[in-house]
Design a protein that fits this description.
The complex is a heterodimer. Chain A contains no helices and 8 strands. Chain A has strands spanning 7-10, 14-15, 19-27, 49-56, 59-65, 75-82, 86-94, 99-108. Classes of the chains: A mainly beta, B alpha+beta.
Chain lengths: 109, 279
């Protein structure tokens, strides 16, 4: 069970129609690869975020599959075009079944 | 022919100027200006200018520190904020109970290590945190360079960012300061290197692939890309002494406390930067 998992996102609160905006996301997570061993020589079980999805007003923006080699606290930065006012919904899926969510509204003027 | 000669001179000038981003300025979140170059304090007559380690890093690493969202060290500051408000120990007190919000601690980081009159000793921030935990909270002390401790130091640094380091060097600290200075100039290990050999005689030169800085500690705790976590001053000291192939002093030892005081005083005038980002 991953501890202290906190999602963070940064989305501009305002944009003009059709503008390409930059979105940054970060989730604190150990991203334990499953390859390491503890002090007793036992394998530490894999525990990573395995999927990250962003939707805007229900429409998919990105859908990312994450692999064990991705480092701790995964950070994603990407561009998105906003045609209208709406909400970005961010979802991270953990190996342990946990789902972390965040949402940010954008007003298009 | 003249033209070629000129090119050669320019090429040489470019090659010898190893300082990354010679004129770069560090502004955090678009409004917090950080002093990364300052005149050397009066007691430091061997240098004319003091520079933050930020100056010696690549542009990509420098940029990570210019925005709190991009700065991976800020995750740990958030963790410390949670710890700040959490009551622990038999007295059921949190840091918040006495001190209020973390922002109330602005101005603390720049003056540490400092003399504690009641205890009759020079105290680092970590020592003071543990004194609070033991005496006021009646809680278990944290390990000197443990994650909890270094996160808390990062929180204390973050609320003082931009303020000039201003460690007292007169009065009762004189003895400890002198001890720290002696350590700074003492050669250790099989390689017989003192702090000064790298960080005073050779800063801005490369030691193999490492671009040597002045070894200033205004940016501590430091988020290092190599281990993806915050690193305490004394951990860095240990690493440096180990690299001279010497037996190191331990974190929190009187030797390292003295050294921290002296090294901090060499940075009087630079801004508090922690948590900074280095490689």
């Amino acid at each position: 069970m991953a501890e202290n998992v906190t999602p963070r996102v940064r989305v501009p609160s305002e944009a003009s129609a059709g503008e390409e905006i930059t979105i940054k996301t970060l989730i604190s997570h150990t991203m334990e690869s499953g390859q390491r061993r503890d002090g007793d020589g036992e394998l530490i079980p894999r525990s990573i975020i395995n999927r990250f999805v962003v939707n805007f007003n229900g429409e998919n923006v990105i859908d990312v599959e994450l692999a064990p080699a991705i480092s701790t606290n995964p950070f994603f930065e990407f561009q998105a075009t906003v045609p209208e006012s709406g909400t970005f919904e961010f979802t991270w899926y953990d190996d342990d079944g946990s789902v972390y969510e965040d949402a940010k509204e954008v007003t298009v003027s | 022919m003249k033209h070629y000669a000129l090119s050669a001179v320019l090429g040489l000038a470019a090659a010898t100027s190893a300082l990354a981003q010679e004129e770069a300025q560090l502004v955090i979140n678009g409004d917090l200006e950080i002093t990364t170059r300052a005149p050397a304090p009066d007691h430091l007559d061997r240098l004319s200018e003091i520079t933050s380690g930020w100056v010696y890093r690549s542009r990509e690493t420098q940029e990570l520190q210019a925005d709190d969202f991009d700065n991976p060290g800020m995750i740990f500051v958030d963790d410390a904020r949670a710890a700040w408000a959490t009551a622990e120990g038999a007295a059921e007190q949190s840091c918040q109970s006495c001190h209020g919000d973390p922002e109330e601690m602005a101005g603390v980081r720049p003056v540490y290590p400092k003399w504690n009159e009641d205890a009759g000793e020079v105290r680092t921030l970590a020592m003071q945190v543990n004194d609070c935990r033991e005496t006021r909270m009646e809680a278990e002390p944290w390990g000197y360079t443990s994650g909890d401790m270094v996160n808390m130091e990062a929180l204390m640094a973050s609320v003082s960012r931009g303020m000039p380091i201003n460690v007292a060097i007169d009065g009762p600290v004189a003895e400890t300061l002198a001890k720290g200075e002696e350590l700074y100039y003492t050669r250790f290990g099989q390689l017989e290197l003192s702090c000064a050999n790298c960080h005073e005689d050779n800063y801005d030169n490369n030691i193999r692939s490492d671009h040597l800085s002045q070894g200033q500690i205004n940016g501590f705790p430091v988020y290092r890309l190599k281990n993806a976590r915050l690193n305490a001053t004394h951990s860095r000291f240990r690493g440096c002494v180990r690299d001279t192939r010497a037996e190191t002093f331990s974190a929190g030892s009187p030797e390292f406390v003295a050294l921290e005081l002296y090294v901090a005083s060499r940075g009087n005038g630079l801004s508090v930067e922690g948590p900074s980002v280095r490689n």
